[in-house]
Amino acid sequence: MEQEILAAAEKLFLAKGFALTSTTEIAREAGCNQALVHYYFRTKERLFQAVFEKLARLFVSTFLQIDEEDLSFEERLQKKIEAHFDIISANPALPVLFFNELSTNPQRLEEFRSRVSEIPSGIFQRLREDLEREIARGAVRPMDVFELVLTVVSLNVGLFLTAPLFKALTGITDERFQELAVRRKSENVRIVLTAVKP
Amino acid sequence: MEQEILAAAEKLFLAKGFALTSTTEIAREAGCNQALVHYYFRTKERLFQAVFEKLARLFVSTFLQIDEEDLSFEERLQKKIEAHFDIISANPALPVLFFNELSTNPQRLEEFRSRVSEIPSGIFQRLREDLEREIARGAVRPMDVFELVLTVVSLNVGLFLTAPLFKALTGITDERFQELAVRRKSENVRIVLTAVKP
DNA sequence: GCATTATTTAATTGTATTATTAAATACGCG
DNA sequence: CGCGTATTTAATAATACAATTAAATAATGC
Q1: Model confidence pLDDT, tens digit, residues A129-145
Q2: Using the CB atom, is residue A129 less than 7 Å from strand C?
């Protein structure tokens, strides 16, 4: 049952955020008594943390993965952008929840910060090294690793942040939106690769 | 007093969102009794709508403005990107509130949709015409107007969505962040202008 | 100055929600 | 089976909140 509660919580938190989701609702979705939610997770806050940590890990995981494949910088960058896009595409509500919680709840930000600091030598170390090498070679314009990550995240996240709005305004079907997303993914790759050129 | 309540509501809604802000808190911030909030706005929902509509209007206003100046397409595009960036820069919490509310509240989305449909001939009509002319001229790669707007909004919004995270992780001062934002604005212009090239 | 309306407050109601407690049921193992 | 533990439920306490009401105060026009 614990897993059903977690799954129900994830679904509802993603759909409505922390504040608008009640433990009663989570219990109903999971098919159990409301008290059971508290039996397993004590407080709504702790339940949310469990969900959020998993999602946050998912969200940033792409940039942590070290691909040992023998690819060029551009090819590796492309893979990272696409992997990141795919994760968000599979969890389109994730960015809104992620940014909203980190923006409106200082405590959440602090938790996130302490978790990230557990990771030694910075999360973008490998990417930074790659980038600096390419810059030294003159193959990439001088830029900070954060600049690059920000561009990628901004572009990848943008489609899904605006998706509800876009769908409501255009009345696009989910299938056609999916097609559009596929095109957008490669477009994002193109934009980033063009943007990093010197 | 009505204006103080509106201002207090705007401040708190931007900081904590709709659900986590109470009318009691708004009253305290405005320096009045809680009942007065309801006297002027009847419900918390209606107060929020008043705030949100103003903010939403601000957020999309940039793309509606028709600049009659005799500038090239690229120059006009640059002006629009910069104006949009400046508005968000002046209201950094706006994007989170905007996307969160439109994503988590179907009613809000419907209100927004009906408001937008009041505007005749579509909000991006002028921009679309300009864009299609440039495409016909071969000066701009074939693309939909939504693609372009999405790219601009994604890039402009990205910095401020990630700002709390970025600040927490790097401990950057507000002044240095401001400098960074200025650079980012011109960088966004560069990226977009490069991306639209054929 | 008085009557009328607008503004503001204090008090209260109803309700939703988190969290706890104690009891009931299922489950595993000797 | 039967004992102990884990799981689940029902009931309820405690609280925070939106919203209403009635009364008080201030402002406005005559």
Answers
A1: 899 999 999 999 999 99
A2: no
